[in-house]
Write a structure and sequence with these properties.
2 copies of one chain form a homodimer.
Chain A: H1 12-25, H2 33-40, H3 48-57, H4 64-89, E1 93-94, E2 97-98, H5 100-104, H6 106-125, H7 130-153, H8 163-188, H9 193-220, H10 223-226, H11 232-235, H12 241-249, H13 252-260, H14 265-273, H15 276-295, H16 302-316
Antiparallel strand pairs in A: 1-2
């Protein structure tokens, strides 16, 4: 599936090249790896992170081959983290399909995730830029640390999760990869230091907003759109921004009472009807305004326009 | 524990620095990561891989800080792979102690392994040498691919495992890391291309021999030396070189009959008494002779002498 997000039009050819690189990484001829990798790599996902990398490259002067490696490496890192996420959460479904974890079991899913980490490292190394490679290694560490902090909270009382902790978690989980795509490509494209800092901030804000919107959709999407039951996060004990906003809107007694019920239907209904969704939406809008502001540091032109229009796509999307 | 292997005397200071770097990576002040990392990082293991990296560095002209990063990165990669190995094998014990997997569970052990991969990447990137970093990423891929092939064989008939498949598996599992330590440091030390090739071959042969000896010890060591029951590999369904040698020594009927018993006692006894151990030992000796031959490409001196004496240590060790 080549993405149909309109902001990606400028980099359709690059995205097609990424798709071919991913299909190649899936080792179609390998009897063991081929079938497992083909469950997670080709034709899945919106390719938002590669598109960010490719569009950012267009802000400057880039070597097409190196930029392709960067865009592919970022998507492979994303894929690796999803495979291990499903292991950690013991998830059955992702995007409406059975997860690799469910299909091949814990052991092989751990190893396939490791293999994808290795392949993403190979792609980032192939950019030949030590600064970019260093950013890649830092990103990997941030992602893991964020996941460990989330997993360690486990069954401890999530209800007291602060807004700051929430943003820290989603930074590691989502925004760090957006930063890698944007900052890494800005370096490869030879942008000025102030433009690199701007693109880092753009990736950071866009990534946070993207995850906030994801967490909102978990409450207001339909099961068909989500590919999983509505309110899955809170049902599994994960507190996200809409619930934190709900806590700000009702009394501590009401909040505790809502959580007294086992299946979380009351919490889900309250999030949908109390104005919590609108408050969370306002936070996403603020983040996206900051992302657009940060873009001012980048050179004007069609690539910057596309990056700006992406900030609107992020908030309007339903899946 | 600073290693007491005599061949390491030349690099005692460097090994002490690696130990401090590992203790630092264990994040003693971090409430979540500290306790988990301290279970796997400091004071454990013989530090054979860092010693190889440090000794190889001494063959040429090296920057102490970069070499330290290399030596630490290799040991972190080793640690990461052990953590995931225990997840994949659902192992309770390693070196006589409970594994991280047993202590903190599947999810956190997966994430801590990922975190260690990230930290090892950070260290290798800190060498600043793209050729070394690229070797690191390739090594990671080889290790994963080897593990996947081993895990995929799973409960399929292991009895037909060929010698070639066995060596492929242990190359990915063990020798690839020895190669990274030796070849990576040879590059950092500015050795000639022929010396780099020689050190690559030395690491390759030493690593294979090390694993063969490990697989022999699994049959002839005591439970106290092994920190786990004798014959654990074959009891868990993993065929190693001593069993392949046994298959060469007895008839197919005898071999099948030996495996008919559930607890593998007959197989273990046969390996110990049939001459299979001696055959496997001869293969290790041959590999070590090749490792010594490869050393001829490296500059003579105390570091090369220490690397040569390591080939004797590998075959004489009991743990």
């Amino acid at each position: 599936m080549i993405s149909t997000v309109s902001s990606f039009a400028l980099v359709q050819d690059g995205l097609a090249a990424v798709e071919r690189a991913l299909a190649d990484t899936a080792q179609p001829d390998h009897p063991l790896l081929g079938p497992m990798l083909s469950m997670v790599l080709p034709g899945s996902g919106k390719r938002l992170r590669p598109a960010l990398a490719l569009l950012t490259g267009r802000l400057g002067t880039y070597d097409a081959e190196r930029l392709l490696q960067m865009a592919t490496g970022v998507e492979l890192l994303h894929g690796a983290s999803l495979v291990h996420d499903d292991v950690v959460d013991e998830s059955d479904l992702r995007r409406g399909s059975q997860t690799l974890f469910t299909r091949v079991g814990n052991a092989l899913a751990v190893l396939v995730g490791d293999y994808l980490f290795a392949q993403s490292a190979n792609r980032c190394v192939a950019t030949g830029d030590v600064r970019v490679i260093s950013l890649f290694a830092q990103t990997l560490a941030s992602m893991c640390q964020g996941q460990i902090e989330e997993a360690s909270r486990g069954n401890a009382p999530q209800m007291t999760l602060t807004r700051e902790q929430y943003y820290q978690t989603i930074w590691g989980k989502t925004a760090s990869l957006f930063v890698l795509a944007c900052e890494g490509s800005a370096i490869l494209a030879g942008l000025s230091e102030s433009a690199i800092v701007g693109m880092r901030r753009y990736g950071d804000r866009l990534g946070l907003a993207f995850q906030v919107v994801d967490d909102i959709l978990d409450f207001i999407g339909t099961e068909a759109e989500l590919g999983k039951p509505v309110g899955s996060d809170v049902r599994q004990g994960t507190i996200t921004l809409p619930v934190i906003c709900l806590r700000d809107l009702i009394s501590p007694e009401q909040f505790r009472a809502a959580f007294a019920e086992d299946d979380r239907t009351v919490v889900i209904d309250l999030v949908r009807t109390s104005g919590a969704v609108e408050l969370a939406q306002a936070e996403a809008d603020r983040l996206l305004a900051e992302a657009r502001e940060a873009l001012a540091e980048a050179p004007a032109g069609p690539a910057r326009d596309a990056l700006e229009s992406l900030t609107h796509y992020v908030v309007e999307r339903r899946v």
